Every structure is written in structure tokens, then in C-alpha cells.
From TrEMBL:
Protein name, entry field: U3 small nucleolar RNA-associated protein 18 homolog
Top-rank taxon, per record: Eukaryota
Protein role: Part of the small subunit (SSU) processome, first precursor of the small eukaryotic ribosomal subunit. During the assembly of the SSU processome in the nucleolus, many ribosome biogenesis factors, an RNA chaperone and ribosomal proteins associate with the nascent pre-rRNA and work in concert to generate RNA folding, modifications, rearrangements and cleavage as well as targeted degradation of pre-ribosomal RNA by the RNA exosome. Involved in nucleolar processing of pre-18S ribosomal RNA.
TM annotation in the entry: 18-35
Cross-referenced PANTHER family: U3 SMALL NUCLEOLAR RNA-ASSOCIATED PROTEIN 18 HOMOLOG, WD-REPEAT PROTEIN-RELATED
Gene: UTP18
Keyword Nucleus: yes
Keywords for this protein: Membrane, Nucleus, Phosphoprotein, Repeat, rRNA processing, Transmembrane, Transmembrane helix, WD repeat
One term under GO cellular component: small-subunit processome
WD repeats (start-end): 182-216
């Protein structure tokens, strides 16, 4: 006896196939990134040693690199030739970190072994050494963050201390202290709060104005914290650990709860998650480990899906990534690696620099 399939059944099966096809397209959209590999950002002047910094200028189509070869370099970003604009050499000063001021007119640079740091004034073409900071009782200054309003530097000290330094007078006006050692620091998008995680896996939230601790919690499942990043839209907080796990939280829940649960635990790194960076639209989270080659991933937000085609190139290009950054409109992504290069990628989804 022949089996008779009704029109309703055929239509139902057809609709199911359409839905499945749409699901596959949606999944491919989430897991595949429209990306093009460009010439290295610093191809016109590769570093002779490990790069420690890459950062895009906040308003011009320019990228900065700095590293252990005691130099800071600026390049015009066009994705094709990326010509060098200028380089400055800092004698006996291997650069640990360099960062643009908020207005993009200055660069702050620190080294490894002392508390001397430099300010490079690009408008005047002048390098200004800062030898003495009033109120700073630290033997060295390495890690720092520029506040979103551009008025302060947040210096990471020893034994859990954070020092607020005014850019105008170069003196410490406030200090905060956590238990243990600081693993990472991030400002909230408006600069009113500071997020800090410790090597012991605890996260602290500070009020920038009063220097009071607003909340404190243990990063879920973390034994040793390594990095932290806050999204530009004020919605997410990402915490990296020595195990390679990156927990992403709701900032609002972190403020309200003593034991917030992560929205997602990202487990795509197998070595310590040492660098985290949200793109300006808070749609992508870049994560990386400097402990292994090609240990960098781009995560789609808010699905928390790792883009499957990054990094996937014919030959190694990432190597050991030390810092990550997106251009102001997310059109480009770059990172600093231990080969003295800054691989540059064009994110085609975004139309502008």
C-alpha cells in the first residue's frame, strides 16, 4: 500500500527545512568574521626586539607601537603601506607600556626598573622625563591607565596599592589598596569607577572620586587573576585567569551582588589570559595569552561565540601577543607580538577607521 503524504505534512517539512537553513546561516554569521589580513602596522619600521604596546590614536588614522628596543613609533594606517610618521628613541629605557593621552596629543611611557617615566608631547615635539612624583613611595612604575577624562594617571604599585596621579601637577592625590597583588586595572566607560582584580582572584570596584571600595567579589572559579577589561557601553566586565578562562559579567550585577555569576565562561585559551580588550561598540571581545603562539581569539558579544576563522591563516602571524587594540570605529584590529611586529587586520563589517 502506498504511503500518502498530505499537503500539510509537506508544508510542515518544508518550513522546518527553511528554519534549519536560516539557523545555519545565522550560526555562520556568528562564527565567521569578515576579516582581511593587512601589511603589519609597523612594517615600515619593525622593532628589533619584543613589542610591548600597540594602540590606535583616539582621533587620527594613526597607530603607535613601542617595545624593548627603547623606541616609540607612529604610523599612518591605510592597510596597504602603513608609512612611518616618526620614531623617537628613549636612551636606556626599554618601554614596558605606552599610552596616548585622551586628546591624543601626548604619549605616556613607562619602563621596568625604576619610577622614571616619560611624556612625549607630540604638538611640541618634546620628550619630558618625569623623575619625581610627589607622594609616590614606590621603587618603580610599570603599569598605569589614563583616566577617560584625561586628568589622571592610575599607577599600579606594589603590595596591592593603586595611586591616583594628576596629569597637571604630577603628584599623588589618592591611593587605594587591595589584599594581595594587583593583576589588572580597568576604568568604567565614564571614569567614575575603577575595576581591579588580584593575583588571588578577587575583584574590587572603587569609586574614583572618594577612593572607597563599592564592592568586592571572588571571580568565579578563579585561583589566580591575570587581566581585566570593561566594555565601552558600560554593560560588561571581563576577568582573565591563569588557567586561561575568561569570565564575562554584567557590570550591573557586579555592583549589586557579593557573588555574581558570569554570563559566560570563555574557555578557548589553554594558557594564561594575559590580555583582554573590548572593541568600541562592545560587540567583540579580544582575548590573548602571551604564553603561547597564536593564542588569540575574537569573541562575538552578546552570543559569546568565538569566531572560528580567527586566527586561521596559511602561516603563523600572531605569535605571542602582548597587547591588543581596536581602532576608534573598529575598522582595524592589531596586536603587539614578541617578534617585533604588529599584525594588522581589517574588520570588514565596520566601514570606518
Amino acid at each position: 500500500m502506498d504511503t500518502v503524504v498530505s499537503k500539510g505534512t509537506r508544508k510542515k517539512n518544508y518550513n522546518s527545512q527553511i528554519l534549519y537553513f536560516l539557523y545555519i546561516l545565522f550560526w555562520m554569521y556568528l562564527t565567521l568574521l569578515q576579516i582581511k589580513k593587512c601589511l603589519h602596522a609597523n612594517n615600515d619600521r619593525p622593532s628589533e626586539d619584543r613589542l610591548t604596546t600597540v594602540q590606535f590614536h583616539p582621533s587620527a588614522q594613526v597607530v603607535m607601537t613601542a617595545g624593548l628596543d627603547q623606541s616609540i613609533s607612529l604610523f599612518q594606517v591605510d592597510g596597504k603601506t602603513n608609512p612611518k610618521i616618526q620614531s623617537i628613541h628613549l636612551e636606556k629605557f626599554p618601554v614596558h607600556k605606552a599610552q596616548f593621552s585622551v586628546d591624543g596629543e601626548q604619549v605616556v611611557a613607562t619602563s621596568f626598573r625604576n619610577k622614571l617615566f616619560y611624556i612625549y608631547d607630540m604638538m611640541e615635539g618634546k620628550v619630558i622625563p618625569v623623575h619625581t612624583v610627589r607622594g609616590l613611595r614606590e621603587q618603580r612604575v610599570k603599569e598605569f591607565e589614563v583616566s577617560p577624562d584625561g586628568e589622571s594617571l592610575l599607577l599600579t604599585g606594589t603590595s596591592g596599592y593603586l595611586h591616583v596621579l594628576t596629569m597637571k601637577t604630577k603628584e599623588v592625590v589618592n591611593s587605594m589598596k587591595i589584599n594581595g597583588n594587583i593583576a589588572g586595572v580597568a576604568f568604567s566607560h565614564d571614569g567614575s569607577k575603577v575595576f581591579t582584580n588580584s593575583e588571588e582572584g578577587e575583584v574590587y570596584i572603587w569609586d574614583m572620586r572618594s577612593s572607597k571600595c563599592l564592592n568586592r567579589f571572588t571571580d568565579d572559579g578563579c585561583v589566580s587573576g591575570t587581566s581585566i577589561a570593561a566594555s565601552k557601553n558600560g554593560q560588561y566586565l571581563a576577568c582573565g585567569s591563569a588557567a586561561g578562562v575568561v569570565n564575562v559579567y554584567s557590570q550591573e550585577e557586579c555592583m549589586r551582588q557579593n557573588n555574581p555569576k558570569p554570563l559566560k565562561a570563555i574557555m578557548n585559551l589553554v594558557t594564561s589570559a594575559t590580555s583582554l580588550c573590548f572593541n568600541p561598540t562592545s560587540e567583540i571581545l579580544a582575548i590573548a595569552s602571551r604564553a603561547d603562539d597564536e593564542a588569540a581569539r575574537l569573541v562575538h558579544i552578546p552570543s559569546f561565540t568565538v569566531f572560528s576563522n580567527f586566527p586561521m591563516f596559511q602561516r603563523k602571524t600572531i605569535y605571542r601577543a602582548h597587547r591588543l587594540d581596536f581602532s576608534p570605529n573598529s575598522g582595524f584590529f592589531s596586536l603587539a607580538n614578541n617578534k617585533g611586529r604588529a599584525p594588522l587586520f581589517r574588520l570588514l563589517h565596520y566601514k570606518h577607521f
